[in-house]
Amino acid sequence: MTDGNGRTGRKWPLLTTIIALILAATALIAGMHILRLDRMVRDKMTGRIWALPAEVFARPLELYPGLSLDPQTLEDELELAGYRQEEQPAAAGAYARRGGSFEIITRDFHYPSGLERSEHFTLVIADGRVRDITHQTTAEPIPLIRIDPARIGSFHALEYEDRLLLARAELPELLVETLLAVEDRDFHSHSGIAPRSILRALFANLRAGATVQGGSTLTQQLAKNFFLTGERTLTRKLNEAVIALLLELHFDKETILTAYANEIFLGQEGDRAIHGFGRASRFYFRRDLADLTVEQVALLVGMIKGPSTFDPRRNPDQCLQRRAVVLGVMRDRNIINTGQYQQAMAEPLQRSTRVMHGGSRFPAFLDLVRRELQRQYREEDLNGRGMKILTTLDPQVQRQVERELDRTLKALGRKGDELEAAVVVTSREGGEILALAGSRNPVAAGFNRALSARRPIGSLIKPVVYLAALERGYTLASPLQDAAVSIPTANGQTWRPQNYDRREHGRVPLYLALANSYNLATVRLGMEVGLQRVIECAGRLGLPGTIPAYPSFLLGTVELSPLEVSQTYQTLATGGFYQPQRCIDSVLGADNSLLKRYPMEVEQRFSPDSIFLVNTALQHTMREGTARPLAGMLSPALAIAGKTGTTDNLRDSWFAGFTGDRLAVVWLGRDDNTPAGITGAAGAMVVWGRIMQGLHPKTLELAEPPGIQWQWIDRRSLTASTRFNTDAVALPFLAGTAPEGDAIHQGVRAVEQTTRGLIDSFRGLFR
Amino acid sequence: MSGTARSEHLLRFSCRGLAILLLAFALYGCAATGPLPPRPATPQPAEMTEPAETTEPAGTTEPAEPVTAPAARPEGPAASLYLQADSALRSGDPRRAEMLIERALRIDPGQAIYWHTLGRAKYDQGAYAQAVQLFLKAESRMNAGDPLARSNRQFLEAARSRAQ
Question: What was the ipTM of the complex prediction?
Answer without folding.
Answer: 0.80
